[in-house]
Structures are given as structure tokens and as C-alpha cells.
């Protein structure tokens, strides 16, 4: 790994527990991650391994029981504009047009012209030129998710978190969107952290894949994917990595019964 | 395309047919019964009589005068009820404490029928305009209040989370998330409130008034003029329908986004 790169997100000894009817449930335990600037990281794990909780901690919607998370130099205590997030549902405002939805993503004070330019630029970036005046309901699921990506990026965050963003899309749209995200990542050079249960998706996109075990969620392994992009899903190395991750879940029994292929 | 249009038009005609079949049947039976002498005119005058009475009421200007008096009362009472309903409803929708404090009061007062307030208001406010305004106010207030509370409380927490992550101020979250999201429900409340305001004005005028459409009906009854009573009832129904349609159209224009078909 090119370790000279600046650390963008640092997860330091994070533990998150929940009180459930008197007893303590450890969801995440001893999580240490050093994510570099511009890196694409995926976090895979079975349902309930705490991978979405980890994203919530990074974005500042939830707080670690112990340990610390830093985005850049900032210790995360609440959401901040340097860190955007995309959810499984596009979460668009149904009363706003595509343009206005993307505009809602801008919280900084900007001049009107700069604002307009920024919005148009991001609508173009996600390939929705010509749909500026459409309402979310008039768009397909994939297109809605594109709007939500534009809205998250228009604030120019340093880090983009993706919480199973394509889980609700059909298989073909999903592959299409993976290509799109790859293109956007290459164009924008953002640090991206993707939570997914789709192993192929993780291998297709990431520099490194963090494999979480379940209950408590711990880092089981971190796999480097040193393949040139765009990656061939049927390539030898691709399949080797896929087999390796499969083995983690299905043979080493780290709790992968609900993991999708 | 042409075929589609023809089918659409055919479908529309069919829908219209379904909508008017029941009233037309009633009218037909009524006309037959009256004209064959099966129904006594002192109880139920013939449709022609009602129509000619209606026309003469309209041309003489009496109808317009009574209607405009009633309308003015409705606007006054409804305006007050809507404003108070939206303000107090917003307060109760946003603040859990306000909701707890006022909630019990609402549940006690709301089931009281509008007309039960009339004697009290006459006692307090006299027989003039203010007692009628008060009755209409009560009549329109509840549905606006409840629908405003509901609209605000049912704002999607996921959309609120997005605003929170985007660091929107409290004020911007209210104006750009809560408010638009509550609007369809508020509008439903306004429509229901307007409907009940119209019902209330007629009720209030029948009990204590010397003008207005409700008074016209009850006075006609005293003078044993059933055709006039009927003409009044028809106008009340027609106006009620008209008001609701106008508000519905307005809602469709203002809240276009909520009527867009899912793809």
C-alpha cells in the first residue's frame, strides 16, 4: 500500500455496545482502520455484524462506546460537511425537482452563479443531464440513487460513505451503478467507504476489503485488491479473492449464513 | 394514440355515467311521484316547483343576499379556525411537551358536537355575528388542528436525518422538510374544515339568526313553503360541493408533486 498518503479516516480502537433488556450486546469491538486519502474501502460482513453501525459512527450519527474516530484532523462527535453519506434508499425530497434536491446538498454560502455551476456540474457527473426538472417519483430507482450521489457530492466532502447503496436495485442496474461509482471515484478522487454484502461489488470497486466477523463485529481480515480497473469479474485473481472471502464466511464460520453472493 | 384517446374519452363518459346515475334516478322517481299525484305537494313539491322557486329566488336577489351573508360568516369563522388550527397544530406537532399538555384538553373538547356550543356562545357572545363566527370557528378548527399535527409528526425521519447530516439549521429543517412534508395533510384538514364550516353556518343560522341561507330555510318552513326549503337545501349541497372541488383543484395545483404517478 502507498502508505505515504495522508490518513483520511482513522478508526481507533472503536467499541460500540448496546443495552438490550439489561444485558450488554457488543456490536463492534476493537475496530482499527487507517483509511488513506483517495482510497476506496469496502466493508463486508454478514447481516448484523455492525457494518452499518460503523458507517453511522464515522458520519457522526452515532457515538462509539469507547475509542475514537477521526476524519482528517477532526474527532467525530457530530455530522460534518467533510463527510457525506448515501443510504440504501435514495431519500430524496419528493416535492423537490432533481435540481432542487441536488441544491439542498449545498449548505455552504455560495454566490448564485457558483451555486448554479456546481449543481449543473454534479447533475452532469451522475449522468442526469436533461432530468433537472423531473420529480423523484418520475425517476427509476437507479436514477434516484444517482441524484442522491450528486446531492452528497455537491457539498464537496472529503469522504463519501455508501451504506449498501445498490442493495435495493435489480442486478443489471446494480452493475451499471457500480461502474458509475467507479467512474465518479476516478474523476473526483474522493475517499470512499462502501458497506456491502455483495462480495463481487466489493472486489470490483475497492483498493482494500475489510472483512468483519459477526457478534461481536471485529476486523477478521483486510484484503488488498491489486488489480487494474476496470476489473474483469471472471478474471483469475478476482475469482481467487472471491473464493477467499467465501471461505471466511462459509468455512471458517464467522457468521456468514445470511451473506449474499 | 387515437384509439387510446377514444378509449380514455369512453372511460370518462362511463365514469360520469356512474356518478350521475343515482341522483338522476332519485330525481326521476321524485318527478314521476309528484306529477302522477302520488306525493302530496305540501310535503314534497314537484321538481318543477322547486326549480321555479329556485329561479325566482335567484332572480329576485334574495338568494344572493342570503348566500353572501352566510359565505362571509364562513370565511370569517373558517379563516380564524384555520389560522388557529395551523398555529396550535404546529406547536403540538413540533413540541412533545405542548402535545402532552394540550392533548388531553383536545381529547375532551373535540367530541363535543358543534351545535352543542351554540347555546353557550349565544350566552357569552349574544345573538349577533360573533356567536356564529365562534361556532364556525370550532367547526373548522378541529380537523385543521388534527391534520396539521399528524402532518408534522409523520415527517419521514429518514428525510430529517439527511437534513441533519447536511447540517441544516433548525429553521431550514422546519421550512424545507417538515413544512412541505406536512402540507398535503394540512390541506386535507383545510378541506374537511371548510366542509364542516359550511355545515356549521347553516346549523347556527337555523337556531339563531335573522339572515343567511340557514335562516331562509327555517323561515320558509315556518311559512310552510316546502319548495323554498328544498331550493335552499339544494343550494347548500351544491355550494358545499363547489367549495370542496375548488379546494381540491387548488390542492392539485399547489401540491402537484404529491399527485405525480410513481414510475
Q: Briefly note the structural class of the backbone of chain A.
A: alpha/beta
Oligomer: heterodimer
Q: Main sheet of chain A, how many strands, which sense, barrel?
A: 6 strands, mixed
Q: Residue ranges of chain B: pLDDT <50 for 5 or more in a row?
A: none
> Helix count of chain A?
7
Q: Give helix and strand order of chain A, one letter per element, not per position.
A: EEEHEEEHHHEHEHEEH
How would you classify the helix and strand content of chain B by structural class? mainly alpha
CATH homologous superfamily descriptor of the domain at 1-79 and 160-166 and 193-261 in chain A: P-loop containing nucleotide triphosphate hydrolases
Strand content of chain A: 25-35%
Topology diagram in text:
The complex is a heterodimer of chains A (261) and B (263).
Chain A: E1 7-20, E2 23-36, E3 40-44, H1 51-59, E4 66-71, E5 74-75, E6 83-86, H2 98-104, H3 112-125, H4 141-153, E7 159-163, H5 171-188, E8 191-196, H6 199-205, E9 208-213, E10 218-224, H7 236-250
Parallel strand pairs in A: 3-8, 3-9, 6-7, 7-8
Antiparallel strand pairs in A: 1-2, 1-4, 4-5, 9-10
Chain B: H1 2-35, H2 47-60, H3 62-94, H4 96-109, H5 114-125, H6 129-153, H7 157-165, H8 170-207, H9 213-222, H10 226-254
